[in-house]
Inverse folding.
């Protein structure tokens, strides 16, 4: 499941544009929308001043580049740690991945993830970002949303879905479904955003998971 495009909200278009430019991503402004190209994924941010909570996005980096990518992001953004002070994390069981998390603009909780089940691949530019491979979405009924996505042909990834957390998709792209009260790992200091999200992932027909949250 490739996340080709994500339409997202932000409280500040200016902060969002400046941040992604600092990461070296192509950024453009068109009709009140900030467009960001992250590898093979296009992000479209629209301003929503009353937005609550935090977005979570994970970005795949080339297999074998974790140490270099972690050092690179530490020179650009604030790397996040857990309660024990750790700043590098192995993924959940059966994911075969490793991650470093960092602060994005507008309270975004961002992640670089090395997915070791993917063959090594060179990024399209000097920026070591291949694609946005996870988008976090808060839904009132996680298992109900999993059932909806199953009917659209998407299955839970690696592990069974739970009532408060489920990853749906595959190693190339995942929707991270969480309950609205589940705080984002690793800091546990911010709740997920409930702002509208529209993801283009190549479905035959659009699927609405909750009001304003659509996969198509």
């Amino acid at each position: 499941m490739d996340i080709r495009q994500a339409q997202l909200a932000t409280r500040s278009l200016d902060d969002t544009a400046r941040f992604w430019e600092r990461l070296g991503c192509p950024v453009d402004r068109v009709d009140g929308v900030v467009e960001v190209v992250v590898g093979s994924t296009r992000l479209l941010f629209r301003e929503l001043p009353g937005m609550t909570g935090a977005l979570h996005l994970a970005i795949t980096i080339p297999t074998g580049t974790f140490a270099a990518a972690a050092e690179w992001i530490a020179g650009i953004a604030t790397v996040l740690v857990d309660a024990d002070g750790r700043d590098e994390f192995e993924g959940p069981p059966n994911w075969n991945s490793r991650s470093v998390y960092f602060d994005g603009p507008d309270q975004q909780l961002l992640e670089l993830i090395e997915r070791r089940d993917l063959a090594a691949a060179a990024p399209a530019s000097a920026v070591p970002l291949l694609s946005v491979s996870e988008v976090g979405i808060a839904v009132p009924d996680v298992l109900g949303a999993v059932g909806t996505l199953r009917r659209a042909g998407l299955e839970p990834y690696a592990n069974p879905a739970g009532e408060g957390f489920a990853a749906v998709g595959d190693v190339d792209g995942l929707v991270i479904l969480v309950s609205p009260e589940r705080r984002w790992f690793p800091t546990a200091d911010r709740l997920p955003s409930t702002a509208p999200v529209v993801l283009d992932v190549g479905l035959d027909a659009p699927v609405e998971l909750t009001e304003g949250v659509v996969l198509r």
